[in-house]
C-alpha cells in the first residue's frame, strides 16, 4: 500500500467528518468503514490514527474511534489562535518586505472581492467564491512568512470545523446581514494589504487579530442552524 493511497484515505475520511456525513459521537468500526470505502484494513488503521492525532477522532476502547464533538467554545478558541498565528506571519512579511509577486497576488484577491461586493447582494455561488478567495488571501500571507512552525500550527488548528479561512459559516435566513459582514471583512483585507505594503508590522498584526472577529460574528449569526460552505477541503 503506497503513501499516496494512505493519504487519499485520510483526506476522504477528513472530508466526510467535516461535512457531517460522519456525525459527532459516531463510533467508527474498522471493518464497516473499510467496506464502506472499499479499502483494506491496514491503510485504514493508519488513516484513523492520523485523524486522531489531528483531533478529529477520539480513541474509544483498544481498537475503536469516535468522531469528536466540537463545542462552540472549541471553535471560537481556535479562531482566536488563528488570529494570533496569522498576525505573527503578517508582521514578519511586513517587516521583511512584500515582493512584487505577492503584492500582485494580493491585489488580485482584492479585485475579486470588490467584484463580488460591487453587485450589492450575494448571487448564487458568491458565498463559495468568497470562501475560495478568502482562503487564498490568507494562505498567500502565511506562505510568504516562510515560518514552518506557524504553518504547521495553523494546519493543525484549521482541522477544527469552521476555523479555516477557506470555510465560511453561512446562514440563508440572514443573507443580508451576512453580506454586510463579509463586505466589512473585505474592507479589512484592503487595510491589511495597505499595512503590509507600507511595512507596518505592528499595525498588520493587530489587523489580522481583529479580522478574526468577523469569523466569530458570522458563526454566532449562523447558530443553531449551521451550514458549512467550504471552498476547499
Automatic annotation (TrEMBL):
SUPFAM superfamilies xref list: GntR ligand-binding domain-like, Winged helix' DNA-binding domain
Family matches, as PROSITE patterns: HTH_GNTR
One of the Pfam families matching this protein, by short name: FCD
Annotated protein name in UniProt: GntR family transcriptional regulator, vanillate catabolism transcriptional regulator
The keyword Transcription regulation appears for this protein: yes
SMART domains: FCD (SM00895), HTH_GNTR (SM00345)
Native organism: Paraburkholderia susongensis
Gene3D superfamilies: GntR ligand-binding domain-like, Winged helix-like DNA-binding domain superfamily/Winged helix DNA-binding domain
Amino acid at each position: 500500500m503506497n503513501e499516496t493511497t494512505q493519504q487519499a484515505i485520510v483526506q476522504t475520511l477528513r472530508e466526510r467528518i467535516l461535512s457531517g456525513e460522519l456525525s459527532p459521537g459516531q463510533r467508527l468500526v474498522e471493518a464497516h468503514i473499510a467496506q464502506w470505502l472499499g479499502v483494506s484494513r491496514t491503510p485504514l488503521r493508519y488513516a484513523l490514527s492520523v485523524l486522531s492525532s489531528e483531533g478529529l477522532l477520539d480513541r474509544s476502547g483498544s481498537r475503536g474511534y469516535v468522531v469528536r464533538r466540537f463545542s462552540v467554545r472549541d471553535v471560537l478558541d481556535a479562531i482566536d489562535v488563528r488570529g494570533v498565528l496569522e498576525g505573527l506571519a503578517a508582521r514578519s512579511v511586513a517587516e521583511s518586505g512584500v515582493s512584487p509577486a505577492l503584492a500582485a497576488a494580493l491585489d488580485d484577491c482584492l479585485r475579486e472581492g470588490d467584484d463580488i461586493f460591487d453587485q450589492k447582494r450575494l448571487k448564487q455561488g458568491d458565498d463559495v467564491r468568497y470562501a475560495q478567495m478568502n482562503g487564498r488571501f490568507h494562505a498567500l500571507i502565511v506562505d510568504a512568512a516562510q515560518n514552518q512552525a506557524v504553518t504547521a500550527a495553523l494546519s493543525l488548528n484549521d482541522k477544527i470545523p469552521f476555523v479555516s479561512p477557506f470555510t465560511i459559516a453561512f446562514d440563508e435566513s440572514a443573507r443580508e446581514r451576512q453580506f454586510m459582514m463579509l463586505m466589512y471583512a473585505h474592507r479589512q483585507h484592503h487595510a491589511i494589504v495597505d499595512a503590509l505594503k507600507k511595512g507596518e508590522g505592528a499595525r498588520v498584526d493587530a489587523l489580522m487579530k481583529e479580522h478574526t472577529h468577523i469569523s466569530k460574528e458570522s458563526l454566532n449569526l449562523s447558530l443553531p442552524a449551521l451550514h458549512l460552505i467550504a471552498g476547499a477541503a
